[in-house]
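User: These chains co-purify. Model them together.
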Amino acid sequence: DGGITQSPKYLFRKEGQNVTLSCEQNLNHDAMYWYRQDPGQGLRLIYYSQIVNDFQKGDIAEGYSVSREKKESFPLTVTSAQKNPTAFYLCATTGQGLMNTEAFFGQGTRLTVV
Amino acid sequence: AQSVTQPDIHITVSEGASLELRCNYSYGATPYLFWYVQSPGQGLQLLLKYFSGDTLVQGIKGFEAEFKRSQSSFNLRKPSVHWSDAAEYFCAVVAYSGNTPLVFGKGTRLSVIA
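Assistant: Joint model of the two components:
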């Protein structure tokens, strides 16, 4: 079954801890993205990667880190430097070429700091 | 830089009534435009997209959108709303060159009343 899998669906973190959100895809898409969603703020871009072993900062990269060691995987680490990490996190992918510009989304991970 | 404005934060319509959600974009060249829908706690699902050609595009679930270059708008419409259409709707734009991140509006929450 093709798609994007984000895990876990819910995640709780104590203040001062780093946590890693998983995003795996079997769509064979080159580009992967992480967005953060807060009520009334829409989706804001954290990081994106257009190819393995390369990634770029988005609009709100501070306090986050990523890696792209495999085409299928693009994990996001929320570090203790992120001041307000409680949010809904969405992973997305896009395919190659101008006709594959639409983004496909995972089901999201809700992170709560306790 | 690209940007998207959705002027209406929240809209309430009666079941069976028509719907129009507004979207204005800012982009210097030919944009690719999208509408997505999100149910609570879920990822985003593509409703429709505009790349070129006919300015009136049809999507899933009976939605359509019209691209108006002169007004920099891409408004979403549905002739008769069903209670299951209650959700959050996002307009997005991406550069014509492709393989770059989508830029999203802040969303419009749709409530449907009997």
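Chain A has no helices and eleven strands.
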